[in-house]
Amino acid sequence: MGRRRAARGWRLRRWGRWTLRARLVVVVAALTALALVVANTAGLVLLRRTLTDRIDDQLTAVSRPFTRDTVPPYDPRERTRVLPRARLGPEQVVLLYGPDGSLEDVRRSDESTTVPVVEPYDRLIARATDTRPYTVEATDGTAAWRVLVVERGDDRGIAVLAVSLREVEETTDLLLLIDAVVIVVVLMLLASLAAMVVRLGLRPLTRMEQTTAQITGGNLSRRVPDADPHTEPGRLGGALNLMLDRISTEVAARRESERRLRQFIADASHELRTPLTSIRGFAELYRRGGTPPGPELDETMSRIEAEAARMGLLVEDLLLLARLDHERPLRRRPVDLLAVAADSVRDAHARAPQRRIRLAALDDNDGFEPVMVTGDEHRLRQVAANLLTNALQHTPPQARVTVRAGRLRRTPVGPPVTAVGDPLPAATPVAVLEVTDDGPGLPADQAVRVFERLYRADPSRNRGSGGSGLGLSIVAALVRGHQGRVELLTAPGRGATFRVLLPSVPDADRDELVDLLRTMHS
């Protein structure tokens, strides 16, 4: 039993080493050969039975005169006689036995016909009661005989009628030879055709193998060509192409993320190194006695304090972005976006009283009505403050800055150059906070990167006066955390507009939230 299992396992392993193409061709050829052999065997058996039934009908027809005893009388002088051809066909023999079992007469279709060796008389008597013919094999290697035993009339004995099956055997042997030749030719043609069809059918798999090998070598741009969705290999190729597209996209995104991370780390390190270098320089100057007590020392300490504060703000911004990246939940409550905008304008006036900053309604036909949203009030104030700070820092002193807040009642003017966040659903009421300036604006190649962390449109700008480059990144992260969207519309010489879109409170709930908000602040 163990040897059989081992042998079977060895055969299965050998079969498993064959290529799919070879296995398909072998299976198709084997099944076709089996079908042809079964069909031709059934045909040969049916043909032989048909020819044998025809001979049986001849025997029955020839036997009728003997059963009616209408054959010519026996002549002792002619022991064997040739029967008329009208009565017997080729290679037919009639043996007439008397009641005592003696052979009275032998009649043949011609002189060359041999006489078959039949059974003893007692067995022939037993067969006479059965009217069905039977087959007698030849002892000399010639063709078999089909034999019918009938009783002669008036109890005159029995008649044994025999017909040679030589023509039947020759016909079936010839047909068997023809079938064998046809089967071999058909199998050869079928194997060739199957190999060609399988090769054509598996060509997409071959291309997939080549493509996969090239992809393994690092060429992620390769794709499976001619992926016909109507075929199984085509659908597999389409799925492979889709998977490769996703992998390429993810790899490109990962590389871009790694590049941005490296750039972010480099910029953050530089941002932190700048105040640290200043603090270290002032401290070393003081240690060496370069700043004696007095106004100069006080100025040095003030510079150290300012640089430390700047470094602390930078660290706080980095920590805030890290928390937002981890999607920590915001504290949500009803917030009046118009009040947030108004407070931000007042704070900006206090910081830069010489600048022209004004608060306006979103639509010139609308008044100043509460714009209710649900969100983190502190973070929304930070959004407005960062946008205003960005506008003040990147525009000349004579530029005007306008802050608008309101509910979106019509499609905003102009498509954004860049945006962060998914578009809000069409059925969602939208609250808008806009910060617009008439400064120099930004070219498109710089505008698309303004929300990147630590990005500066002008790398040569003084870091001490230009901020850390995290303000707009924080705006984008906070707006995205409120399920909103921030857009930038700008062009060189046409100023810039930062537009914040947030889900607004429906009209049915706005008055109730306004009352609640007033109660909370009272």
Q: Per CATH, what is the topology of the largest domain? A: Heat Shock Protein 90
What's the helix count? 13
Order of helices and strands: HHEEEHEEEHHHHEHEEHEEEHHHEEH
What amount of the residues lies in strands?
15-25%
- How many runs of DSSP E, i.e. beta strands? 14
Top-tier CATH class of the largest domain: Alpha Beta
CATH-scheme architecture of the largest domain: 2-Layer Sandwich
Mean pLDDT: 78
Low-confidence stretches: 76-86, 460-466
Major beta sheet, specifics?
6 strands, mixed
Helix content: 40-55%
Strand order of the largest sheet: 1-3-2-6-5-4
Silhouette: rod-shaped
CATH superfamily of the largest domain, by name, is: Histidine kinase-like ATPase, C-terminal domain
What gap, in angstroms, lies between the N and C termini? 94 Å
Overall tally of domains: 3
- Give the helix/strand class: alpha+beta
How large, in whole angstroms, is the Cα Rg?
A: 54 Å
Tell me what the structure shows.
This protein has 522 residues and is an alpha+beta fold. It has 3 domains: 151 residues, 2-Layer Sandwich (Beta-Lactamase), CATH 3.30.450.20; 89 residues, Signal transduction histidine kinase, dimerisation/phosphotransfer (DHp) domain (Helix Hairpins), CATH 1.10.287; 192 residues, Histidine kinase-like ATPase, C-terminal domain (Heat Shock Protein 90, 2-Layer Sandwich), CATH 3.30.565. The chain is 53% helix and 15% strand. The chain is built from 13 helices and 14 strands. A 6-stranded mixed beta sheet has the order 1-3-2-6-5-4, with helices on both faces. It has a 6-stranded mixed beta sheet with strand order 8-10-12-14-13-11, covered by helices on one side. The radius of gyration is 54 Å and the shape is rod-shaped. It starts with a helix and ends with a helix.
